[in-house]
Amino acid sequence: MKLAWVTGASKGLGKALCEHLLNQGWHVTGISRQQSIENEHFTQFVCDLSLPGNLAAVQFEALNASELLLVNNAGTLGEIGAVGSISDDEMIHTVSLNLTAAAVLTNRFLKQTQHVDCKKTILNISSGAGRNAYDGWGVYCSTKAGLDMFSSAVAKELLINGNQHTRIFSIAPGVIDTRMQEQIRTANSAQFSNAERFRKMHQDELLISPEIVALQLVTFISKRDQFSEVCLDVRNMEFR
User: Active-site residues: which are they?
Assistant: First the structure.
């Protein structure tokens, strides 16, 4: 039995990922504040991952599994604006959801499944903003850069420890048509100097649907051993 856990599963990329995994025979647990999927092989775990105290309730039960997958997809852009003008609470919330939750869940996943002898994949959803700085997105950029480095460090540990079954990746999914993009389009140029560029991308229908990206990611999971890099971009992937 192939078991997957997906955070931020109620909408956008997370929901599309769950649906594609279910279509390919996975048993999926969605971890999010709401449920939006009905399927006999789908389990909803209601949890607000931005509250660190909730993370201990997430369990990875995986006896007799043939393959395991953790997708840390939940994330938020946070408040748009220059550092020095934004809310302290919003900064804490963004770091907690984008980075702390992913790191802690990765730790719990590896700890609780270490005795299960099967293929394991951890997929952290990063962003091009973690590799290129954007004004007005300082905290978001930092958390995604942190996610890239965390993934790289874990990958090195797995290699040193001779864990050949487990791989971790941090993947930028491109510019997806989600609620985050809706938020970006509401920003003014004083908050974010590139706001007009993103509004034009939407007008010109250049945003990618979550379903297309999710299918690429599910294909990647099945072909992960073709890739040696940890930090990747969906737009540059080529499958053999």
Answer: 140
Taking only the tens place, the pLDDT of each residue in 177-226 is 888 899 999 899 899 998 899 999 999 988 999 999 999 999 999 999 99
CA neighbor of 26 nearest in space, from 42, 7, 13:
42
**How far is the C-alpha of 86 from the C-alpha of 102, rounded, in Å?**
23
> How many Å from the N-terminal Cα to the C-terminal Cα in the chain?
26
User: Do residues 60 and 108 make contact, with C-beta atoms less than 8 angstroms apart?
Assistant: yes
Number of residues that this document lists for the chain: 240
> Which position has the token pair 């864990």?
163
Residue 197 resides in a domain: no
Give buried/exposed letters for 36-59 (b at 16+ CB in 10 A, else e): ebeeeebebeebebbeeeebeebe
Tell me if 218 is assigned to some domain.
Answer: yes
* Cα Rg of the chain (Å, integer): 17
Share of the chain above pLDDT 90, in %: 91
| β-sheet bridge partners, residue 122 | 70, 168
- For residues 33 and 6, is the Cβ–Cβ distance under 8 A? no
Is residue 31 assigned to a domain? yes
Number of domains in the chain: 1
Q: DSSP of 63-126, one letter per residue? A: TT-SEEEEEE--------S-TTSS-HHHHHHHHIIIIIHHHHHHHHHHHHTTT--SEEEEEEE-
Given phi > 0 = left and psi -120 to 50 = alpha, else beta, which region is 203? Answer: alpha
Structure tokens at 69: 């997958």
CATH number at residue 101: 3.40.50.720
